[in-house]
Design goal:
By secondary structure, this protein is an alpha+beta fold. Helix content is 28%, strand content 21%. The chain contains 9 helices and 10 strands. It has an 8-stranded antiparallel beta sheet with strand order 5-7-6-1-2-3-4-8, covered by helices on one side. It has a two-stranded antiparallel sheet with strand order 9-10. Helix 1 packs parallel to helix 6. The mean pLDDT is 90. The structure holds zinc ion. Zinc ion (ZN) binds next to helix 8.
């Protein structure tokens, strides 16, 4: 279940900023693969990264793109993945298939000496979705090639045109990476709450005023979350996301805007949260899981 810790645009951007500050300029000395299913490519091999300098780190949608002297180590953290910065990494390779560790990257020591640093990519839980790709161009990753424009780069006109061409509910439209890249389950709840629009409103039925509110909410919500997270240590980024949320993962708690009780709609493997007073004219939305059971 999603408790507001699944990495989305602000978290991945913050990880990229952290790595730009702490890891760029160092040499990748070794990469240990602990979860065989995490690696999705075989040419070039993971071992090709060894001995090359990490020259840049950027975010593409919810993907993290590490430029290793022209080769790209691309990471999709999925639902329960995270990146942990490690100091003084042990030289012995990790045991494969044990615990949450998926991949460990060893980096050369900082210029002031000391033991080698690096980072672990980990994934909690049994449903493994974390994916790692080694490619010559980031566009070689299928999920990247399909991405729509970035949620922080799209302009209002383009955003309006994309939604106008989409016959479906806003909640699904906002989280569809091929439409707009970077927004997931948590921030779509937050964006719709900030815009005061129902998650079930049809994307192609927005009034001009609603479109302006939604576009401003996308930018405002993501920019605020980013400002809270950039500059923090990679290990503490996750906790911060939860504290900044107004409705997501807050079922039963008061809405910070109006005081009404935050409600939830459950689906097979996910859920959404919203405030009836702020978003649906005070009327609770039908819970599909419940209505299915009652049939
Ligand atoms: Zn409210």
């Amino acid at each position: 279940m999603d408790h507001g810790r699944v990495p989305e645009l602000p978290e991945v951007e913050a990880l990229a900023a952290f790595l730009r500050e702490n890891a760029v300029g160092r040499v990748v000395t070794r990469v240990d693969l602990a979860a065989v299913q995490a690696i999705k490519t075989f040419d070039p091999p993971l071992s090709a990264l060894g001995g090359l300098e990490l020259t840049g780190v950027s975010r593409v949608g919810k993907f993290l793109d590490l430029d290793v002297s022209g080769l790209h180590l691309v990471v999709h953290l999925a639902r329960a993945g995270w990146l942990h910065w490690r100091t003084a990494l042990p030289p012995a390779p990790p045991k494969p298939g044990k615990g949450p560790l998926a991949l460990r990257v060893h980096l050369s020591p900082a210029e002031d000496g000391g033991l080698p640093d690096g980072f672990d990519l980990t994934e909690a839980g049994t449903r493994k979705g974390l994916a790692v790709y080694v490619v010559r161009s980031v566009a070689d990753v299928p999920g990247v090639a399909r991405l729509g424009p970035d949620a922080l780069a799209v302009d209002r006109e383009q955003f309006g045109a994309l939604l106008a061409g989409r016959h479906g509910q806003l909640k699904g439209a906002l989280t569809d990476q091929t439409l707009v890249a970077g927004i997931g389950n948590a921030y779509s709840d937050e964006i719709l709450h900030a815009a005061r629009i129902s998650p079930f409103k049809m994307a192609d039925k927005l009034s001009d005023d609603e479109l302006v509110r939604l576009y401003d909410a996308v930018r405002g919500t993501l920019t605020d979350a980013l400002a809270r997270q950039v500059g923090q240590k990679a290990a503490t980024l996750k906790g911060e996301k939860r504290s900044g949320l107004t409705v997501h993962a807050r079922t039963g708690l008061p809405c910070p805007v109006c005081g009404d009780t935050v409600r939830e709609v459950s689906f097979a493997d996910t859920s959404l949260q919203y405030c009836p007073t702020c978003q649906t004219g005070g009327k609770p939305l039908a819970d599909r899981r419940l209505s299915k059971l009652l049939k």
